Amino acid sequence: MITIRGFLAMTRAEFRLFRREPFSIVFVLVFPLMMMLLLSAVLGNDQADAQDVANGMLVWRGVTPASYYAAASVAVIIAALGLMTLPTNLAGYRERGILRRLRASSVSVWVLVSAQLTLAMVTFVAGALIMGLVASLAYDTLVPKDLIGVMVAFVFGTAAFGALGLLLASVVRTSRSAQGIGLLLFLTMWLISGTAPPRAMLPSGLRDLGGVLPLTPLVTAVQDPWFGLGWSTTSLAILTAYTFAAGIPALWLFGRD
Amino acid sequence: MLGLGVNSEGWFMAPVITVEHLQKSYGHMVAVEDLSFEVEEGEIFGILGPNGAGKTTTVECVQGLRRADNGRIRVLGLDPTTEVAELRQRIGAQLQDSALPGRLKVAESLELFAAFARNRVDSDQLLTRWKLQEQRDQAFDTLSGGQRQRLFLALAFVNSPELVFLDELTQGLDPQARRATWDLIREIRRDGTTVVLVTHFMDEAEQLCDRVAVVDDGRVIAIDTPQGLIDGLGLSSVVRFTTSEPDLGWLEKLDVVESLTRNGETIEVRGTGPVLALVASELVAHGIAPLDLRIDRPTVEDAFLVLTGRRMRG
Fold it and tell me: How far is CA A1 from its chain centroid?
């Protein structure tokens, strides 16, 4: 009872704080949107490109470049929230002594983590809707063919990147280092996970490296049902593995002080 | 140790806090060597010692914020490692070096913390008691040091605690604000709340505490009332005055006088017990009435110096 009341109060406080400092999230929402628009502008929205082949792979997975990037960029929002927003906020709370202050007053750190995740998910939903709207207005991109499959991918991706963000927040000491490491991880993944150059265009070494990082399976898990290629159970399994591999140590490390 | 006391109505009661042989290390650094003490219901109990003596670690273990390596702790009859959720509902804490989100407003912070409390206190009442009404819509980042400190005190009382821990209560406050805070703490004790005060300020311990545990290098080296600490060590007071009278041999004959030193016209008389009254009456009897007669009593600071052989830092 107290936990639910506390969770609601904490979530309300987090939303208020967000409303007072909305620009903290600009990068997370604007970067994927801007990249989707720029890459689509450069690479076009031509149905003729849909069947392009490079290195034995369909470059655009059978859809136009703009549709390809619209789906991939929604996944990028999840990665940005998980690798940058979540660890920067949580590490800052720890660094400033806010976590200690909360714990001393019956406030479990997990209530804070849940409130942060709630805020991140609402941000994601807003970002995804904006992305979808802009992409379909600008390029008349493909509407998800299997919306449930896409939503399942979002859930698995949120779990994996939420766990990674929590792990990052547990191991760094300051908000600034969380921000630095998070940005580095995010940009690296963004470049080699088929979200910037398509994977078919990458040299095989980078493609393999990108393949073992979590953004690639998230992009695949989102794109497959979106483009009507069925569910990518392999990708969902890899995301689940990341959730546990990062989440279990994070639960243990973040809870201690 | 049975640890039973008798309260004013004659009931036997267990102490509010019992700590027996507490030990805590961080890696190779020993923070608390072997520490025992008891806190009785309704008292203001001071934990006094220099920075790094192990005071904060001790109260953090007592509050269940840290796990002790060894020893037994009971707080309000609860074990702070296994019954921490229940314990937190019944205690309040003002921590050293903590903060709130920078843009959270004062009234919102109280509302947030109250949401987790079983027996919550009305926010307006807290804002009034801690003189924060004017700051209620101000963000944490914009508060002055004193205002932040008052907000943390208000937060410590948001769950109507039976016992509060105040760690470096008046750190960063100006003298006037310190005195005002002391008055509020006395008021809280009158309401029946037990207070554990962690401090490295001797004057604070002396002014506020019913009993003090002097901690040094992770051990309790003395527990007594502030006056008891001083009396127990037989520390002497110094009476000072000026006079042109050349022969004061009769003063030295008083039992309470230990020594008399003269520096020009300035006289210093060291002694114990009612030294001021006896010296004064003797002076008057000899027709001397100095305008500047005064006494410097031994302080807790002096007691600390004698107990540890060194001055308090900070």
Answer: 32
CA A11 to chain centre: 20
What would the pLDDT profile of A116-149 be if each residue is shown by its tens digit? 999 999 999 999 999 999 999 999 999 999 999 9
Q: Indicate the helix (H) or strand (E) that contains A163.
A: helix A147-171
The number of folded domains in chain A is: 1
Compute chain B's Rg from CA coordinates: 23
- pLDDT beneath 70, residues of chain B: 1-13, 310-314
State the nearest Cα–Cα gap between A14 and chain B, in angstroms: 9
Which among B66, B103, B116 has CB closest to A20?
A: B103
- Half-sphere exposure of residue B180: CA atoms within 13 angstroms, side-chain side: 13
Measure the CA–CA gap between B146 and B160, rounded to whole angstroms.
22
Helix (H, G, I), strand (E, B) or coil at A124: helix
What number does CATH give the domain B5-231?
Answer: 3.40.50.300
Taking the C-alpha atoms of residue B259 and residue B271, their distance in angstroms, rounded to an integer, is: 7
Domain enclosing residue A220, as ranges: 2-255
- The ipTM is 0.86
| Measured torsion, CA atoms of residues B61, B64, B65, B68, in degrees rounded to the nearest 10 | 40
Is the CB of residue A123 less than 8 Å from the CB of residue A28?
A: yes
Return the domain boundaries, chain B: 5-231, 236-297
Nearest by CB to residue B116, choosing from A96, A98, A107, is A107
Token pair 């993944």 is found at A189
User: Is A169 in a helix, a strand, or coil?
Assistant: helix
User: Residue B189 is which amino acid?
Assistant: R
Q: Are B82 and B65 in contact (CB under 8 A)?
A: no
CA-nearest residue to A90 within chain B is: B101
Class assignment of domain B236-297? alpha beta
Tell me how many residue pairs between chain A and chain B have CB atoms under 8 A apart: 75
- Closest partner residue to A104 (CB to CB) among B63, B103, B111 is B63
Arithmetic mean of pLDDT, A30-52: 93
